[in-house]
Every structure is written in structure tokens, then in C-alpha cells.
Amino acid sequence: MRSVAIRFLCCSAVLLGIGIEGRGQEAAKDPRVGLKPGLRDAGQAARNMELVASLPKPEGFFDPKAPGGEPMPPDRTTTAAPSGTATPPAEQAAGAAPAPQRSASGLNFANSDLAFSGSLVFIGNFNGFNSYDIETAKKPQLFASVVCPGGQGDVSVHGNLLFMSVEQTRARIDCGTQGVQETVSAERFRGVRIFDISDVKHPKQVADVQTCRGSHTHTLVTDPKDTANLYIYGSGTGTVRPGEELAGCSAGDPKDDSNTALFSIDVIQVPIAAPEKSRVVNRPRIFADPATGAISGLWPGGDHGPGTQNTSLTNQCHDITVFPEVGLAAGACAGNGILLDISDPVHPVRLDQAADSNFAYWHSATFNNDGSKVIFTDEWGGGTRPRCRATDLPNWGADAIFDIVDRRLRFAGYYKMPAAQTEQENCVAHNGSIIPVPGRDIMAQAWYQGGVSVFDFTDSAHPREIAFFDRGPIDATRLITGGFWSAYWYNGNIYGTEIARGLDVFRLTPSAYLSQNEIDAASLVRSTEFNAQHQKRITWPANAVVARAYLDQLVRSNGILPARAREVKTALDRAEKIHDARDKGAAAVTDGLDTLATELESDAAAAATPDAARLRSLATTVRGRSAGLR
């Protein structure tokens, strides 16, 4: 046992009453079960959301001989490395050379993550990246394509700079397609590429920051105290390259080599005015045991006892999500979920950590809007295996929801997309984002060939699915890796990157679980940039739509008396007829709004959570509406 205290979550075979959203719907009634297979003509099922546009991948980003991808080899284990990783993340012998160049599970043309800037969406791909014009969401158009192989190809944007993660050993500094055959080569590139996209149609690579393990994913980190620089947290999960190729790289055992490239992340400084000077400025030991100083201080790898998962060794992070406005980051780090203080982004400090006997590989993290909760995902099977079958436990390959209390992680519940999938569909929890509905915590999430699931986790212990979209498997008899890599909300729509098929655009539709007012209030939030791993606090205007969204929630939960609800509706209707203080009757309307706001505040004092918070927010919005009319 290591001396560092790690809280464990257990009990997998017998599900406890902790709010697991499992196979809640009977399989026979769920339209996602039994969908017709096919690459371009697969069956579709949707509830409370609709597909409004779909574009295939452009030429150069799929294999003409196998447009849907290559079949996966037989499943030999119940655990797997993260998607595209050359070797399992848990072990690498000291001084080992990079793995031989090979297809990363047939993913060399796979679509990966996406980022947004203005009216453009950038989609990463193991073979480069594409940009699409989404000014009209229903009619997205391919804008530009850049071939630059290397995988994983995750992208982020900041101003006129685009960042791309590169981890495969085939990648070249010059973006060439011929690959690199030598074990040690000055032509190989593994790390973070930086492009100037001032001219999006003709991006220019201005920097290439080499790292010891490459960059499987990366996270942009802003510091309000240092506006001249941008920082990147680089997460490498591949083999450590030899020191002969990049000085200072070692895969040594931490007991013998304190400078090992394992058990750390990379912190890259990017001078915004001179990105060509970007460099690694720290490799913080965020997994260290605070009592002994041992850098390998978290989960040692292995199972947690009979009936539990075999969890990866914590010597890396797969994904780190930052929330600079609250000074926190959440790291999904193989064998642990960790909470970091990033008030000094160059020197992040671990605040807390959690282990889970149901998790195989902690993969990604998402905060709610006020930073009081975080969702961690488990990529059991590495994203390339079927892990949503009827026989799979609903808390394996799922989300774990934590409340953040006094900067500590407090487990609350699990969520897993509830529709059973087939042996031909790779499925497990993957990337998603918050949908900015005021008064609620709602997330859209990709589940590979399990489709897109939208769920409410306002009650952390009892999450509930409220919308979904799914297709049938790519192939009727063979498992071909596909489905949604990411599903993110941006300016009124959900955008999904389909690994094998291309780009999908969705819109939410009103239902008993989500009203049109709530959808409209979420759509009021407009962003000029969006990177899922860099979260920003969202605020809503003192708008009648926002007030009506809160009112719908209160009526749905019986959190407001019917008479008071009628008063709110009447007051908002009257205010809609007033344009400014000069209008006839304006004073009476604004006075009435102020009086109503005071009464709502009084109601909130006697209400229970979360209705109390919604009543206070409704009161604030009503009062703001009054102020706007004076």
C-alpha cells in the first residue's frame, strides 16, 4: 500500500442504490436496439433531438479501399489502451525504443476531436485536420483541408493559432505522408504542432514542440495574470522516445531514474506574439506521494479485488480540463481522477484524487457551469471495443459524477448511456460538453457507436437521459471502429465528429424533460471560441426567455405555487409590451416586477435545493428585467 490516501469506490457486481442510470428502458422499447447496419445507410433513432445536417469526410481523410475503416482484431482482453496509443499505457521497459510504425488499430484516417472559432469548426483527424463553415448550421460547408499525418490530431484554437496533438511514431516535422522508418530520426515529430491560421485556407506551421511521449491530447490554459503567454498541458500516453532522438527522454523506473519521462505531464509556454518560441517549461510531478516524495504515488495498476476492474497504472494523464475562473483543473489520469489547483498554471498542485474499482481507464473530465461538480469518464476497452452490451455492467465504461466540496472530490453517482449495443459496435463513455441551460446541469456526450446521449445531472446521484441519437453498426458482422468521438454544444446546436462517417449537426427539440424556453435560453449564449478542455463560466442576460426557462423548471418540479407561477407569467407578458420607461404604464410594470422579485426571494428562503437556487435566479432575472426597462 502506498502512503498517499486514496478514496476508493467499490461494489461493481452488486449495484448499490447510488443513482446509476443503467439499462433503464426495456430493450424491446428502446428504438436504438436493432438498428440496421451500414456505413452510409445505417438505421437511425432519435428522441428529443434531430439530425439537421451530415457531411461525409473529404478525400484524403479516408482509405478508398476501406472507406469505413478496417475490422478490429479479436478482443483478447477486457482492458485496452486509449484510442490510437501504440502500446498499452501502463508499462514500458526502461530505455525501450518507439514501437514499430503501424496502423493504430486502423485509425490512421479517423476523425478525432473538434474546436470552434467564430463561424468555423475545426475537426482533427489522424491524417491532419479539416475546417468547415457553420455560419448556417443546417448547411455546413467544407472550408479547407490540411494533410499532416501523426494522430491523434486533437485540435484547439486560440485567436489566430491552432494547436494539434501528435503522438504516432510515423509523424514527420514536415507533415510528410511518407512516414519515418528509422528507430531514431531527426525527421520524426511527436508533440504539439502550432499553426498560424490567419489565412485559414492556407495554415502555416510556425512551431513544433517536441515532447518525450508525444501528445495524445492537450489543453489550453489561460492565466489572467499573464496575458502575454498561453500555456498548454500536454498529455502523452505513448512510448517514451529514446534520448538519442530527443535529449532528456528516459523511460526509466522512477525508483532508479528521477528524471524519467513517465509520471508527469508537459507544460508548454506559448508566447502569443512569438509562438515560434514555444517551449516546454515544466514537467510537474502531479502524481507524487506527498508523504514520501515518490513520483509514482497514485494507483499502481491492477485490480481492486474480486469482481473489480483491472485499472491502469497512473503514470500519465489522458485528458485535463481546466476552469481558470475557479482556479481548478480536473485530470483524468489512467488510474485516478485528480483535482488540481492551477492558480499558477506552470506549477499545478494536486488537491485531491479518487480511485474507482469500476474504472479501467480514467479518460476525460467535464465541470458543470459553476465548478461545483465534475464528471470523469471511463474508457474501458480503449474506445475500440463493444462495452455497452446488455451483459456489461452499467457502472463499467461509464461516467462517474463527483461533487466538489471544499476543493475535494465527493462521489455522487454513475451514468451510462442506457441502450444495449451489439458486439459490432465499439461503445464506451467519451467526449462531451455542457449545454448551457440556466438552472440545470445538462451534458451532451459521445459514446462512439452508442451514439450521442444528452443527460441531466443536476441531481448528481440520479442523472437522467433526456435526449439521444444513434445509428446502427457500420458493419453487420464485423466490428469496425466508428461512431461519435466528440459531441459538443456550440451556439445553439450540437456538433458531432463521427470517426468513420464525417460531421453531424443536431438541434434539440422540446419535450417533457426540456422546454422550448430552456432550449432558447441556452441558445442565447454565444461564443466566439470553444475548446472543450478549457471551460468558461457562462452567464445569462436578464431576458424574459431566461426567466421563463426558470419558471418551466419550477413548474416541472412543483417548486413554485401555481398562483405564483401565474403571477410570474402575467408580469413577464406585461413587460414584453414595454420598450422603455417612456411607454405608458411602464412605471407600474417595473414596480410590479420589483415587488414580484422580492416575493420570489422570500419563497426561495423557504424552498429546498435546487428549487431555492432557481427561485433566487428567477428573482434576479425578474429584477434585472425591471432595471432594463427603467
Question: How would you characterize this protein structure?
Answer:
This protein is α+β, with helices and mostly antiparallel strands and about 625 residues long. The chain has a domain at about 545-630. The chain has 5 helices and 33 strands. The chain has helices spanning about 515-525, 545-555, 560-575, 585-605, 610-630, and strands at about 5-10, 45, 50-55, 110-115, 120-125, 130-135, 140-145, 150-160, 160-165, 190-195, 205-210, 215-220, 230-235, 265-270, 280, 300-305, 310, 320-325, 330-335, 335-340, 350-355, 360-365, 375-380, 400-405, 410-415, 430-435, 440-445, 450-455, 465-470, 485-490, 495-500, 500-510, 530. The strands form 7 sheets. A 9-stranded mixed beta sheet has the order 2-29-28-27-26-30-31-32-3. The longest helix has 21 residues, at about 585-605. The radius of gyration is 24 Å and the shape is globular. The termini are far apart.
- How large, in whole angstroms, is the Cα Rg? 24 Å
Strand content: 25-35%
What is the end-to-end distance?
A: 65 Å
Percent helix: 10-25%
Mean pLDDT over the residues? 92
What is the strand tally? 33
Which ranges are low-confidence, i.e. pLDDT below 50, for 5 or more consecutive residues? 1-6, 11-26, 78-103
| Structural classification | alpha+beta
Strand order of the largest sheet: 2-29-28-27-26-30-31-32-3
Shape: globular
Main β sheet profile? 9 strands, mixed
